[in-house]
Amino acid sequence: MEIELWWLLVLPLFFAFGWLAARIDIRHVLSASRALPRSYFTGLNFLLNEQPDKAIESFLEAAKIDTETVELHFALGSLFRRRGETDRAIRVHKHLIERDASQVQLTPEQRLHALSELGQDYLKAGLLDRAEEIFLKLRGTTRDEEALHHLLEIYQQEKDWEKAIAIVAQMPGQAEHLWLKQIAEFHCELAAADLSNGRLEAARRRLEAALAANRRCTRATLMLGELEAKVGAGGRAIEIWQTIEQQNPMFLSLAAEKMMETYRESGREQVGIDLLRAYLERHASLDLLDVVFQAELKAHGPEAAYALVRAELRRNPTLLGLDKLLEAQILLAPAEKRADLELIKNLIHNHTRRVARYRCEDCGFKARQFHWRCPACGGWETFPPRRAEEFDIQP
User: Fold this and answer.
1) Bridge partners of residue 83, in order along the sequence
2) How far from the centroid of its chain's Cα atoms is residue 381's Cα?
3) Which among 59, 91, 137, 177 is least surrounded, fewest beta carbons within 10 Å?
4) pTM score > 0.85 for this model?
5) Which of 319, 339, 318, 338 is nearest to 329 (CA)?
6) Given CA atoms 124, 129, 134, 137 in this order, what sign does their dihedral have?
7) Which residues contact residue 241 at a Cβ distance below 8 angstroms, ignoring those fewer than 6 apart?
8) Residues ≥6 apart with Cβ < 8 Å to 209
9) Within a domain: residue 232?
10) pLDDT by residue (tens digit) across 64-74?
11) Tens digits of residue pLDDT in 317-332
12) Domain assignment of residue 388, yes or no
């Protein structure tokens, strides 16, 4: 009974303390909100209603009224950068840093934040040297990983692949497949420059380094085969290109034409055709079909090419395949029927332009030619060598 009386005495005290704490908290919120200028809340309202132009004007007014609102300056600079007004964003963030230098008003973390924002402004404006200088200053700070990512972006834009390799080696989790794939691509870029300048041994070392980083790097294998073909080792080049089937058979289409040329130069054209036809049966591909079609047409004439495409069209019906079938039919048809067939082919060809593009797996960007790096999102090896129509038929 005594315990129950004790609780009856304590409970009202708990309610009293809770009421008092709530009153103090409410007073604090109200006083803080009264300290903020009205234009600040007006700007927030515009942001919520997706009216960034009006929001910026309101925030500018608020910043004039209360120059101590650091977070407001950050929001304002971010808005300017998103709108593409990088010069205004740079002024906002430089003002924060310079004010800090003279009056020491920013905390260490706020100063790092301001430097990071200024570096992003320079990066967006294309002032890569200034951006690099700032992000190098951020190395070893709490924003080290962020600085590494931005530095990598800068070096890729500048095509400074040596520095890009060095940066990736310092990334957290740099042993993961994503980073190893990028390192391999950077080595391939350096190898491409060596090949174009006749530095074959340097290119070979780069390609071996690429495969050491990522053994499934089909680009390195393709280029290594090209290097062997350049020095006259056609047989060795074909052996290297054939290993692409184990790496990623989808990329066989990129090596098919080179393989066919090498077989033709060595007088073994039919061996090459048979090999590519076997690849086509195992790994359907519109680009591979085109190479085999042209090889059959050149070696055995339109009848053999027509039979090839007709058989492939039955297995994998596509508009691009039909376009090739009509091309062979036109060559076989009598003169009086060619005009009608050419009209049908032209109609189909105009439509196939839309489905004959390569598509990035990450961002969906479409291009008429194959890219190792997406021009839109910057992803490496995100462009499979498959046409858009193949994705639609076989997702």
Assistant:
1) none
2) 8
3) 177
4) no
5) 338
6) positive
7) 221, 222, 225, 255, 258, 259
8) 187
9) yes
10) 544 456 776 77
11) 877 777 777 778 787 7
12) yes
